[in-house]
Design brief:
With about 650 residues, the protein is of the alpha/beta class. It folds into three domains: about 260 residues, Rossmann fold; about 170 residues, no CATH class; about 170 residues, no CATH class. A hairpin with a 2-residue loop joins strand 12 and strand 13. Helix 6 packs parallel to helix 7, helix 9 packs across helix 19 and helix 19 runs antiparallel to helix 20. The radius of gyration is 45 Å and the shape is rod-shaped. About 45% of the residues are buried. It binds adenosine-5'-diphosphate and magnesium ion.
Length: about 650
Amino acid sequence: MSAAETKTTPLIALHDLRKSYGGHDGAPAVEVLRGITLELHAGEFVAIVGSSGSGKSTLMHLLGCLDRPTGGRYLFAGQDVAGMDADALARLRREAFGFVFQGYHLISTESAQENVEMPAIYAGAAPAERAARARALLTRLGLGDRLGHRPHQLSGGQQQRVSIARALMNGGRIVLADEPTGALDSRSGEEVMALLDEMAAAGHTVILITHDREVAQRARRVIEIRDGCIVSDSGRAPVAAPPEPLPLPSPATTADAADTPRALLSELHEALRAAWRVMWIHRFRTGLTLLGIVIGVASVIVMLAVGTGSQEAVMKQISLFGADKMYVAAIPDSARGRGGKLTLADVDTIRRLPNVRVAMPYIEGFVVARRGNVDHRTEGGGATTDFEQALKWPTARGIFFDESDEQSLAKVAVIGERVQAALFADGTNPVGQRILLDNVPFDVLGVLAAKGAGGGQASEDERVIVPFSTAAARLYGSNHPTWVAVAVHDVDKASETAAEIVEVLAAQRHVRDVQVFNQTESIKARAQTQRTMTVMLGLIAAVSLVVGGIGVMNVMLMTVRERTREIGIRMATGARQRDILRQFLVEAVLVTVTGGVAGVVGGLLVGAALIVWSVPVIFSLTAIAGAFGCAVLTGLVFGFMPARKAAALDPVAALSSE
Ligand code: ADP
Ligand code: MG
């Protein structure tokens, strides 16, 4: 830009600029600026002076593109500002203006250096470069030893110097200072004025706004306004050797440096750091809000793990004790007194059915077992060598009797765990010992594997098994099986096989007295209930996740309200709407990611505790990833509204909020 051009094209040209407030929602319209016409040139040091309420700050907001006029024209370097969108205005603020406010307007959660760096972040400067520049500026302003201090740890004068450094960060071609000394004692005020002098001498365009005539006299040109009109203007000061004015960026033409991927990455990194800072400062409140997400995620993980675990336990039970198992018994017809007794011929008939793998007759009745002087009443039973196959019940110690014992009516027995405990409390190995069953001597061949509690009542382990033939001849005096245990080949056809058994026995026995107790159905029903339970638990957990998400939205809305002024400051230093949107989204996501991680850890810990209490628990990676993903998604979804609200704020309105 040549010297001739600077003369012809003023940096700032206002034509009949007007601004009114109100006029809607019942508020009376007040015209605060009533036709300001003014030309300011690059490199000028201008003071705008006027009493309180005369419209100085309003004018400054318009000059700094923080607000739009309601009438008249504003040409910046020959370009009409009215034609620029919000992003272009943000860019202009970032690259051309630096603001110094009476109330400093520093972000309280950030250090001095971070406050100074902010305009450069939005301009897309490299981190090392902007840190070096911020340190250099602060050092030059005498704050080299206060870089890491937060605003509340600095005096008023120091804070104002930080804000001047911030105004200079992106070049500070035009410094707009609104009552910069207003809140300062005279010595600090003098220091700030000396700095403004220095800047003007270095070629910065300085626009100083003050109500104090004495302060205004420091400028080379004084413009007085009263009731929204210019009442006097000392005119452009003739300068002996005008310094070279700082080059101005041309917003409409050059590509925006803030849009390169590297700049975006660096901005996201900054947003993350700032979000972490805010979260840490409000850690108690954030923690409470997070509780919802933490509980949500943890309960999804734990409930699904418990659900899957107990489902698995049922499946294991099915494979252990056999879903393929059923019991056949004859129930006597009490009215006619017929039937009620199964025979070994019936067992043979059942065994010949195609889907039947094993059919084992079983005869049972109480016996008194005795060893030495210990009497123990227990469930006695006669079974065949198919016992283990039919009931999936192995012998843990010793052996089971074999075919020859069966044929020879051998007096041998296999005892249950409880019987062993009662008769061999002295620790003797029962195998090979002799016991009496209803006064008949038997040799113990083996001990059955412990089975634990049975169908709710007595323990299954309260049992003594002898060969069927022996039981019939020596113990019960009858060879009618009490029931027949049946195992099938194809579990899916178990119900059909059960019906078939009923039919063939009815035909053979000429009486319909046989009933089949089919475990398959009940186990299937249990598995089904279990699945329903898992789904229910999952749903409850999901609801708590949503509640957690609403908590996040709540805290984000609160954050936006609390930090409206910070949003204004960020906008004044050049943040675009999308930068603010990103900042708050990053915060919401960070909050939920933290909650999600805590939830996953909590869920795993609770699950581990349950395992210690021997509750069946199976963690599923899908459930963990799903719960975590949902949490983050909730953060995004519920954080979006508050973030958009923040981004849509008007810079001036945001700045002036308390
Ligand atoms: P100064 O900075 O010169 O003291 P301002 O520019 O802040 O004056 O305000 C000028 C006038 O505009 C005051 O009368 C004030 O009440 C009014 N004003 C400023 N901002 C608003 C607003 N947002 N809504 C309504 N009136 C406003
Ligand atoms: Mg003011």
